[in-house]
Amino acid sequence: MGKRNTDIPEGAENPLNAAVAGRDRSTLEMVAEAVRHNQTVLAYQPIMQAMAPHGVAFYEGYIRVLDPTGRVIPAREFMHVVEDKEIGREMDCLALQHGLKALEKYPQVRLSVNMSARSIGYQRWTQVLERFLKRDSTLGERLVLEITEASAMAAPELVTDFMGRMQPHGIAFALDNFGASTTSIGNFRQFFFDAVKIDGQFVRGIHTSHDNQAVVRALIGIAKQFDMLTVAESVESQADAEFLVDNGVDCLQGYLFGAPSVTPPWIEDMKRQEAG
Questions:
Q1: Nearest to 197 by CA among 244, 255, 259, 148
Q2: Does residue 63 contact residue 78 with C-beta atoms inside 8 Å?
Q3: Fewer beta carbons within 10 angstroms: which end of the chain, N or C?
Q4: pLDDT in tens, 131-187
Q5: Three-state SS at 141
Q6: Nearest-CA neighbor of 171 among 221, 115, 220?
Q7: Predicted local distance difference test score (pLDDT) of residue 182
Q8: What own/partner pairs with CB < 8 Å and gap ≥ 24 does 181-188 have?
Q9: For 74-83, 103-112, 143-152, which range has the lowest pLDDT when averaged over its residues?
């Protein structure tokens, strides 16, 4: 049989590209609707101390949208479509606003919220932050802002300037997806990161992967050299957790300790304390 000609005629639209573009448009519309009708929430995941007393160090808040049926849609389903658009900045504003409201309502909680370098230049985002800090100056001491390695490296001067301005408010900064990009180690000198979050690709199954063990040991060493707290992301097994603790990781985050939940997990802890 002769080879079938699968070439697409010039000027014709690739059906796969058309399908992807259609799906992206549909995702964008869903997110826009959710923002318009205030159908966004944070899902909270605990980040645990590796050493005794092994309590919660802080929580991470992930932005979620609700679809028209009320189903909770995780960020991985929409963030890649919105992150470089105006609505992506609106999502950053909403995530920060939800997080700051939670800190205001629960003074015993410490919380991290994701941001991007683009957020810094977005006036509404900085206005949200300034408004809440003005209302309660102690909020900054319980807020951690997480920024990905790729985002920080895209605008290093903007990020370092912002960090310098926020430090007097007590805000901590965490470098997310540490190890996933090709950051020059020398660049750490210009930033003010308090913590690094080791990318999950190096953490999952680490107890059996010698390559990942070598990478994570090196990342821990770099973090310690710069006096930064280390958090291992995507910890899913006890064996992985034990390896990480034995090798000096400060905090652990992942499904082993709890999935992100739109019901704040600290509420159950507060109920138990009250009952006790």
A1: 148
A2: no
A3: N
A4: 999 999 999 999 999 998 888 888 889 999 999 999 999 999 999 999 987 656 666
A5: helix
A6: 115
A7: 61
A8: 181/148, 181/149, 181/150, 181/153, 183/149, 183/152, 183/153, 185/222, 187/153, 187/156, 188/222, 188/226
A9: 74-83
Residue 89: both structure tokens together: 């900045």
- Calculate helix-pair angle for 15-36, 86-105, nearest 10 degrees: 40
Query: pTM surpassing 0.85?
Result: yes
Two tokens, residue 108: 């015993």
CB proximity list for 204: less than 8 A, separation 6 or greater? 234, 236, 240
> Pick from 154, 76, 170: which is nearest to 121 by CA?
154
pLDDT given for residue 16 in this prediction: 64
CB-based contacts of 154, cutoff 8 Å, min separation 6: 117
Report pLDDT digits (tens) over 213-271: 999 999 999 999 999 999 999 999 999 999 999 999 999 999 999 999 999 999 877 77
Distance CA 57, CA 50 (A): 9
Q: List C-alpha distances in Å: 26 to 22, 30, 81.
A: 6, 6, 10
